[in-house]
């Protein structure tokens, strides 16, 4: 488990929360929580004025909690098979 010090060190080196999380291999939302003590989903968080000077990213940051899922819908070997099959079908139609 990453520590606050590890996350803060990566932030000080210029990383954002997404890449700072990748270093210690934790979710970006957890990196934000470790560095700031705030929940990444934004509930019960103090106002921006209270957070002045803290390591809070500009704008909203709920995307750090639930980044978009990666679901590949294509597989190279299947696409090659479909191309082959389509080419064979076109050849049959041309005869």
Protein topology:
Layout lengths: L3 H9 L4 H6 L5 H9 L39 H19 L1
Q: Please give the largest β-sheet.
A: none
Determine the number of helices (DSSP H or I, runs of at least 4 residues): 4
Please report the distance between the alpha carbons of the first and last residues.
Answer: 65 Å
3D shape = elongated
Number of strands: 0
Poorly predicted parts: none
Q: Please trace the helix and strand order, writing H or E for each element.
A: HHHH
Structural class: mainly alpha
Determine the mean pLDDT.
Answer: 76
Structure overview:
45% of the residues lie in helices and 0% in strands. It contains 4 helices and no strands. It has helices at residues 4-12, 17-22, 28-36, 76-94. α1 (4-12) crosses α3. The radius of gyration is 23 Å and the shape is elongated.
Please summarize what this structure is.
The protein is mainly alpha-helical and 95 residues long. The protein contains 4 helices and no strands.
Primary descriptors:
single chain, 95 residues, mainly alpha, 4 helices, elongated
């Amino acid at each position: 488990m990453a520590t606050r010090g590890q996350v803060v060190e990566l932030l000080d080196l210029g990383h954002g929360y997404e890449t700072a999380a990748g270093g210690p291999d934790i979710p970006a939302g957890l990196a934000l929580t470790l560095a700031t003590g705030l929940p990444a989903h934004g509930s019960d968080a103090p106002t921006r004025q209270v957070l002045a000077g803290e390591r809070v990213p500009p704008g909203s940051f709920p995307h750090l909690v639930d980044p978009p899922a990666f679901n590949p819908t294509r597989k190279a070997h299947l696409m090659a098979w479909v191309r082959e099959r389509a080419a064979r079908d076109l050849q049959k139609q041309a005869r």
